[in-house]
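Journal club side-thread
Mid-discussion, someone asked how the predicted structure for our own chain would compare to the paper's figures. Pasting it here so we can look after the session.
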Amino acid sequence: MCGWNHFCRAFLVLGILLLLGGNWSHARAQANCLTYGQARQAGWFAGIKLRPAAEVKKAVEKNKGGTVQSVRVCPGPVYKLTVIRKNGSVVTVTESAVAQ
């Protein structure tokens, strides 16, 4: 019985560490991204011709068959869009922000 208790505790601790590790990496990735207004104020767009965010949003909604819930600007610059699809699944799409 003592061995089983130790196994359960170790399994629980491992599960918690995996959950926390996943959240930290997601938080770090999101910390580097800004809203469109914040990115503009930070000067990320200086001297760069950008694709309009509204145009990118429409294209992603059409391609993914859902509704864009948020748009973030990340270094690169790239747009990271969170899309809720019609079937209820959530996807993150990364699109270049630089106009060609």
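Post-session note: The chain is about 50% helix and 25% strand.
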